[in-house]
């Protein structure tokens, strides 16, 4: 009955789970984009800035967890009450008709056994940003390897059947997407637009090389905790 009333009121039966660490600078904009969902959970890994205040001022639930995106996502999923779980990063905003897209996806009964992600986008109007977006689009189409900054939507039953996010310091997104499988992943039309700050700070080539290096080490079987140490996470 509660879910029916929420649907009539235009509220999506979705728990948005956002891992955060010192994210006060862009969290308010991120949270404002997710109005109309059942709940927003900000899972904090020990911020020393105003992340808690920003989250609570926006009406989000604030949950503390062990630092690390894997442990934070895992904790958020255990706290979630929605029928569907939407995992997004603190600097990622879904744009376009994302609400319509996920409503259509959730309305198909067979999709309770599938997951969905969004097209990757950056909040920068440069040619290098567009090139990176095209490379990511090819990677997702060819291998089904969507990273966490593209968002991930799935029914809670599927999440738990798959074993959920492992409490790893990194590569937790690739690990879960691999368990979903390329055939079990739908790419929705809307764009998950992420801050390009990391690429501007680290250098576009260096940041991309770092990400590729992490992926290569993961596929070679190097434990995520070791990869995290090598890359200073």
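Sequence proposed for the structure above (233 residues):
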């Amino acid at each position: 009955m509660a879910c029916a009333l929420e649907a009539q009121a235009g509220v999506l039966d979705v728990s948005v789970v956002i891992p955060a660490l010192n994210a006060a600078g862009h969290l308010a904009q991120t949270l404002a984009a997710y109005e109309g969902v059942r709940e927003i959970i900000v899972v904090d890994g020990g911020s020393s800035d105003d992340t808690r205040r920003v989250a609570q001022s926006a009406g989000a639930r604030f949950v503390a967890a062990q630092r690390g995106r894997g442990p934070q996502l895992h904790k958020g999923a255990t706290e979630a009450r929605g029928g569907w779980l939407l995992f997004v990063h603190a600097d990622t905003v879904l744009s376009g008709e994302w609400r319509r897209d996920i409503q259509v996806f959730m309305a198909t009964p067979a999709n309770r056994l599938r997951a969905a992600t969004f097209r990757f986008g950056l909040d920068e109007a440069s040619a290098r940003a567009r090139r990176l977006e095209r490379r990511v689009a090819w990677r997702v189409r060819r291998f089904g390897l969507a990273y966490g900054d593209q968002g991930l939507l799935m029914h809670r039953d599927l999440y738990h059947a798959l074993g959920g996010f492992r409490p790893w310091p990194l590569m937790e997104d690739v690990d879960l997407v691999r368990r979903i499988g390329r055939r079990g992943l739908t790419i929705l039309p809307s764009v998950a637009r992420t801050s390009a700050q990391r690429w501007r700070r680290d250098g576009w080539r260096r940041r991309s090389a770092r990400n590729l290096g992490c992926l290569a080490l993961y596929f070679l079987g190097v434990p995520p905790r070791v990869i995290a140490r090598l890359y200073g996470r």
